[in-house]
Structure formats: structure tokens, C-alpha cells
Sequence to fold (628 residues):
Amino acid sequence: MTAAIFVGVYLMAVLYIGIFAFRRAGHRAGGHAAEDFFLAGRSIGGFVFLFSLFGTHMTAFAILGSSGHAFSNGIVTYGLMASSSALIVPLLLLTLGTRLWSVGRRFGHFTPVQIFRDRWECNHTGTLIFLLQATLLLPYILIGMIGGGTVLRTLSGGTIPYWAGSALVAMVIMSYVIFGGMRGTAWVNTFQTLLFLSFGAVAVVVIGRGMGGFEQAVTSMLADPMLSPLLTRERIPTAVFFSYTFMPLSAIAFPHISIFCMTAKKMTQFKRTVILYPVCILLIWLPCVFLGVAANSAKDIPQIREKQSARALLASEAGRMPPETLRQVRARASGDDVLVLLLNHYAPVWLAGLLGAGIMAAVMASDSQILALSTMFTEDIFAWYGHAERHGEQAQILTGRIFIFVVTALAYIIALRVPAGIFELAGQYAFAGFSALVPLFAGALYWRGSTKLGALASTLWVLATVLGIAWFQVATPAPQGPPVTYLSLGGVALLQRTATGTAVAGFLPVLPMTVVSALLMFCVSLVTPKPSLATIGRYFPERP
Amino acid sequence: MVTFTHNTMDARGALLAALTLILFLLHQDYWNWRTAYPLIFGYLPIGLAYHAMYTIGAAVWMAVLVKVAWPSQLDKSPDEERGA
Fold:
């Protein structure tokens, strides 16, 4: 319960930051009210830009999911999700983020779709991209909402029920996003990031001491044949590991990241962010992954022993279990709460509470996604179809605020009614979908020859593959053992259903989706009419 | 200072791109796949320690790119960019 009190204090602090940002905005809006609300008046400073961008990108998965994944899969988690992001994400910020900032400032754009419409002189293609981006973003908003409710329930020992925890998180997020807009969201994200970055360091020290040192923990794992593979990567196929390096491409195509790139006051603020981004990744992911793996040696925690028994049962009996039993055993083996269990067992009560607030900070990442969705709706739909011109900027902001209220309320209602697993599955497709949209950004910002039909072909491909894979995974049962092949050519398994998803020629779908999307963008653009020279000239001024 | 024009990269740009590709490929450390040894600091398995070092290497490489390949032309107005 103490932890829940700390979390309550944390939620009040977050609310205060949002309201403070609202009062600050009142003095600064001037004649650019929409720009001030949706982009913080393009005035975000270097410190807030780095930490808010990082906090915006790192969802609940960075803390709870990473340690849970590492508990079940071992050290591979870091290489799969953290070190690849450490190279790809800052590279994207340097190459595409700075260009988004530049064209946003020069032409007054707020969203990527505005850039695409202007750059390729298109209308409906932009609307289609908006619909695709919005659909792919929804699962993330819902996962955040579900995560908030679950964490509050766990931290309060069940005193705060799931419905009340989710409602509380939804109301806090809604309040500071509606009042504070981008400025409030950026400040809250900075506060959250600082909190969960310090969480990692403190958690390692406290839990390490509690476990009697990590050397002993690792040595005992190496001596156990069931646990020692978790300290290598022998259980993960190399093709799957390679496929994962395509996942971080999604970062720049996420609307909340690409829109955030346009909020920086100066372009030089990208410099510090690009350099320090990998360091931030190291600070949060390394402790969480290592603690997740080391949790396997904490045999003095009964819940962890129970998880390991469930895991052993899955390894030996999964193929013979009825679906409902299988689902229950999988839920028992899940490691998403191992970090909370370690904290509750090894940390003093007050510190566990403080660290619980750090965990809460990580799961409340839905704010920037809700704001991004609202910005996209008001700019790409409301303003584009003439309403902003007719009713003015204040009406545009009011529309944005009403949209935030409606989206948050809907997300809460859905989060109460639908099992979390469905959204996790949807999130899996969404990641691949956003990665496969990156050729649109590269084409628009780097290639004079790109066209709206190239962009349309790429977008339709992404839409078709996301829907196709979703259908395939619903229509075919997940095998409990080795992958089942549904399509092969010349002895090569082209399409397989695996225990956790789909494989295409042994790779995750994200790889072929992204490569084909890039090829379509390139080939279709080569043979279709270009935008006017005047438009191309605005985006690519000739040098003397 | 390397200048990336909109369609072409100069030789130094190509070199930087090639080095970035090598760094990308170094992520696939197949040689550490099936072993936990050596344990760095006595408890970090080599597969994890390698990727922690890789992350630091990425930060260092980003510092180099920011230094030598910063797209400063994007910070200028269109007239400045044309050299007017």
C-alpha cells in the first residue's frame, strides 16, 4: 500500500506539471495558438528535447516488458531490442529527424502527412496514410492504459482494482494533455524519464545487495542446465535476431516521434540527443535485462519458483495441453512482474514505493501518443478539409482537446473489456507496419524523384501485409513445438506459423515488409509523374 | 565538414556510410552465440557485455557523425542555402 501512496504523490506531481504548463502557455500563445498547443511553439530546449524524446519512445516495455522478456528468454533481449535501437534510432534522428524539423519550420507543417501532401501534391494518399498511422497507433495507447491499471493493482497488493487504476491513470493523462498540450506532455515526459533512469541504477544496487551479489547469482545459473542457456543466445535463431534490427526503424515513423522532432527550438538540439540517446538506452535497458535474467536465481521468492515450474511444464507438456490450460500456464510463467517481485522482496518498503513510482512513469507513455493522434486529426483532417480556416485556430484547439477526451475515454472503455494479449499481438504488427513506412519519409525528404503514386503503392503494401499477417495468425493455430510450414518453394520454407508469430523465409515479417515497401516506393516512382518543379524546388533548392 | 547535398554524397559521405554499415553488421556477433564466457566483471556474460560495449560504441560513432557530417545547410533559410 505504501507503494500505491508514492504512486499517488507521483500522479499529483505529474498533474501539477501539466497545469503549470497550461498557465505558462496562456502567456505565450500570442497569434500562434495552434502551434503553441500542438508543438509547444517550436520552442523545446535541449534538455527537455533529449529526455522527453527518449521518454516518449520508451514505453512500458522498456522496464516491465524487457525484464519479463529477459526472465524467459535470457540476455538475448538486450541485443534484440536495445543495442540495435542504440545505433538505428539516433541515426534516424540525424538523417530524417533534422529534415523533418527543417521542413516543418520552413513550411509551417505540424505532421508528416502535411509534409507528404505538400511534397507530393496529393490529397487522398495523405488521408490514407493518416488512417494507417492512426490505426497502427491505437494498440500502443491501449497497452499504456492497461499497463497503468495493472501496475497500480500489483503495487497496492490488489487494494486498488484494475478498473479504478486504469481510470485514475486515464484521468491524469487526459488532464495534463488537454490542458498542457505539447509543452505539458514534454515536461511530464522529462520528469518521467529522469525518474525511471534513476530507477535502473538504484534497483541494481538494492537488488544486487539483497541477492548476495551478482557473481553468486550468475554462477548458480551456469551450474543449472535449465538456466544456463539464458546466459547465451543459443535458443534464438540468428535470422530472427537479424530481423529485429529492422524494428527500430519504426521510431521515426511513429507519429509521436516525428511530430516531436518539429518541436525543437534549434536544430543544434538534435546534436546532444543523437549522441546521448544510446547512453540513455544503456542506462535503462542493461539493468532491467540483467535483473530480469538474474531473477531466475532468486529461488527464495516463491512466486519466481512457481513461474519456473510453469515454464518447465510448458517445455515438456505444452503440446498435450488443452488451449485454456495452456493459456493459464503461459500466464503463470510470464515474467512481466519479476522486477516488482524483486523489489518487494529485497528493497525496503519506502524504497519499493519510490521505485514503484519509477515503474509507473514508464508505463504512462500513452500521453504523447494521444496528443499525436489529436494533432494528426486536427491538422490532417479538421484543418485540411477547411474547418480551421472557417472557424479559426481556437476552434482547432478546442477540437483537439475534445478529441483527446474522446480517445482517452474510448481507450479506457476498450481496456476494460478486451484482454491485454490482443493488443500485444496488434502491437507486434504495428511495429512492423511503422518500420515499413520509413521509405515514405526517406523518399519525401531525400529523393527528388519520389512521387505520390510511389508513396501510395508503399502505403497499400504496408496496409495489405499488416492485415494479411493478422489474418494468417488468427486463421492458423500457433504450434506448440517447431514451426508449421504453409508455403515452401524449392525446399525453402517461405511462410511459417511459429509459436509466437509468423516467419517469412526464416525472418520476421518486418524485414520483407520494409524491403518490399522501399522497392515499391522506388520502382513506382520511377515510372509515374513527378510533382511540379516548383514544389521540388522548394524542398530541394539547387546549389550554385 | 562533409556536405550532404540532396541527391548525392561526396566521397567522405560514402566512407562514413560504409563505416556505419560495418557498425551495423558488428551487431550480429555470431561468435558469442553459444557461450557465456568470459564473464566480464565476474558476472556479465560476454553476449551481454559485448552489446553493452556496442551501445557505447554507437554513442561514440554518433559523436563522430555529428562532428563531421552535421547537416548544417538545413539550419539555413532557402536563400542562404542557395548561397544568395
